[in-house]
Every structure is written in C-alpha cells, then in structure tokens.
Amino acid sequence: RLLGAAVERLSRPDVTAGNVRINATCHDPCREGHIVGVTTTTTTRATRREELLDAADRVVRAHGSSASMNEIAAEAGITKPILYRHFGDKGGLYRALTRSYIDELLDRLRAALVTRGGLRARTRATIAAYLTAIAEEPGVYRFLVHRAAAEEPGVRGEVEGFVRRFGAELAIGMRNEPELEGLTELRAAVW
After folding, report:
1. Are the C-beta atoms of residues 93 and 56 closer than 8 Å to each other?
2. With the C-alpha atoms ordered 157, 162, 165, 166, is the resulting torsion angle positive or negative?
3. 155 and which of 33, 146, 148, 171 could share a cystine (Cβ 3.0–4.6 Å)?
4. 85: how many CB neighbours lie within 10 A of its CB?
5. Distance CA 177, CA 126 (A)
6. How far is CA 84 from the centre of its chain?
C-alpha cells in the first residue's frame, strides 16, 4: 500500500525513491494521471555507493580542493543526508575517494617499476608516472593534499599509508636490482 501511495504521487514516469527505481507508466490516454503498470528494481547498496563515488569523483576532478558536499550531492542528484547515509560522514566519503585515487596511482607506479632498460630507466619512468598523474589530474592532487588530508585525519593516514606501502615496494625492487647488488634491507628502506 505504501508503494502504491508513493507511486500515485509521482509526477514523472521514472523516478528513484531511495534505493528503489520506480517505473510508472500509463498506457490509457483517456485516464490521465492513472497508473496502469508499476515495476520496481532494487539497486543494491554497494551499487548505489559506487554511483555516489563516481559522482564525487567527477566533482573532485572538476573542482579539486574546493569540491563541497553540496556539489557532490547535487552531482549525484540526491541530498546531503542521503550521501551521509552511505558514507557516515564527510570523512567516510573522503576516505573512500582517497583509497580509489591511491589505488589508481599505485597501479601507474607499479607499471613504471617494471620498465625495461635498467635502474635509471625505471627510476625515470616511476618519477614520470608520478608527475604525469599530478599533471593529468591536478584536481585530485589538490583534493588529496590540500583538502582531504588537511580536514580528515583518516585521509591523512591513508596518504601516509600509501607512502609507506610504495616505499616498501621500492625497497623490495631496489634489493632485487642487479645494479644494486648487496644493498641491505635497511639501506634500501632508508633510500
């Protein structure tokens, strides 16, 4: 009955209410406003969360450190309370975005680390990959460094964790580098 009452109040034929997509159509032109058929499909919470992250990503890539929760909610076509319902708070959304951006950057850097041509070529490729990521997505960089990490301790921890993880991967690569034979674990980690 509640669904029927909600559907009767709809002015558009295809509306999202919460996590339920309602498609209401009338095939009888003589009965304007009368709804003949109603179908619903439930969007999973995980799918909706990904859609919201995609909207947040678009706003951050466009506005960088000035991206606001209002802009993100508007891009997603929802209100801020719905955004908070999925992420708990601003920090939860920022942490989810940060993980996504860090994973993208790690993939680029790992690909650069397997560049052929020796240590110098790998070093150049890795530095170029990092700087290219910043140049291609300055909004993401500004968001991570100037906004999210400054406002949310959890994001700062994610960024610091990225630095530690990548540093550990670099140290392993350096110990396995033929040109640096004999490099100790400690020296590789410090370097």
Report:
1. yes
2. negative
3. 148
4. 15
5. 15
6. 15
Mean predicted lDDT score pLDDT of the chain: 77
Per-residue confidence band for 58, with pLDDT thresholds at 50, 70 and 90: very high
Distances (CA, A) of 11 to 32, 33, 73: 11, 8, 22
Q: Is 153 within 8 Å of 89 (Cβ atoms)?
A: no
Rounded CA gap, 17 and 1, in Å?
15
Which residue in the block uniquely carries the two structure tokens 């559907």?
7
Long-range contacts of 20-28 (CB under 8 A, 24+ apart): none
Residue 80 binned pLDDT confidence (cut-offs 50, 70, 90): very high
User: If you search the block for the tokens 């301790």, which residue do you land on?
Assistant: 153
The DSSP annotation for the chain comes to -HHHHHHHT--SSEEEETTEEEEEE---TTSTT---EEEEEEPPHHHHHHHHHHHHHHHHHHHGGG--HHHHHHHHTS-HHHHHHHHSSHHHHHHHHHHHHHHHHHHHHHHHHT-SS-HHHHHHHHHHHHHHHHHH-HHHHHIIIIIIHHH-HHHHHHHHHHHHHHHHHHHHHHHT-GGGTT--HHHHHH-
Report the predicted TM-score, pTM, of the whole model to 2 decimal places. 0.67
Q: What is the rounded CA–CA span in Å between residue 140 and residue 98?
A: 9
Instruction: Write phi, then psi, for 32 (nearest 5 degrees).
Output: -55, 135
